[in-house]
Structures are given as C-alpha cells and as structure tokens.
C-alpha cells in the first residue's frame, strides 16, 4: 500500500459515521433485558459477546443467563439510534440520556454495565 492509499484510508476511517445508540440484549427464556450505550453498535455487540463468551462480563446476572442459555438464548437489537452531526465529538452524555429514556419505557430492563 502506498502513502496516498494509506492517507485516503486513514481519512475515510476518521470520517466514518458508525451507528451510535442504545443496544439491547434480551433473554428469550426469562424476558430480562439489558441496555447499554455504544458509540459503535456493531463493535459494542462484539465486545459484549466476547466478554460473555469468556465468562468475564461484570454484570453477574447477564453472565449467569448467558452461561445457562448461551448466545442463542438472547435477542440482540438496537433499542434507539442517536442522530448526530460530528463523529469526532464526544456523545457520551447524549447516549446516557437516550439509555435512561429507554429504561423508563421498559421498566423490566436493567443496565448492561452497572
């Protein structure tokens, strides 16, 4: 790869607009839902899957359900998408507010990260 290609790819990556929002894992057996925020929803799901599969997730109840029912026992979805302009700006507060709104709508849901 030459310098021009590398520079173009780097610029493309910097300006990408990943989907940001509230991610949801719902246990099919119990109906329990766990909500988290993600600056990149696809990466967020991958990170959670890796931690759960390795038995290293800090949410003990979620980890317990994962151990009992496995990945097939969960429904993964994006509960809400954050609309934003600048991908380089910090959207943590907006994401947290969006998650709180989702938690208010679904009283049975809990936070993925305690």
Explain what the structure shows.
This protein has 4 helices and 4 strands; from the N terminus they run αββααβαβ. With 114 residues, the chain is an alpha+beta fold. Strands 3-1-2-4 form a 4-stranded mixed beta sheet. It is globular and about 50 Å long. Strand 1 (20-27) and strand 2 form a beta hairpin.
The largest beta-sheet arranges its strands as: 3-1-2-4
Coarse morphology: globular
Q: Give, in order, the helices and strands.
A: HEEHHEHE
What are the segments in which pLDDT stays under 50 over at least 5 consecutive residues? Answer: none
Give me the Rg, rounded. 16 Å
Please give the largest β-sheet: 4 strands, mixed
> Percentage of helical residues?
40-55%
Instruction: Give the helix tally.
Output: 4
| Beta-strand proportion | 15-25%
Brief synopsis:
By secondary structure, this protein is of the alpha+beta class. 43% of the residues lie in helices and 23% in strands. The model has no long low-confidence stretch (mean pLDDT 94).
Helix and strand arrangement:
Layout: H1 3-14, E1 20-27, E2 33-38, H2 41-53, H3 60-69, E3 74-82, H4 92-105, E4 109-111
Parallel strand pairs: 2-4
Antiparallel strand pairs: 1-2, 1-3
Quick tags:
four-stranded mixed sheet, globular, 4 helices, alpha+beta, single chain, 114 residues
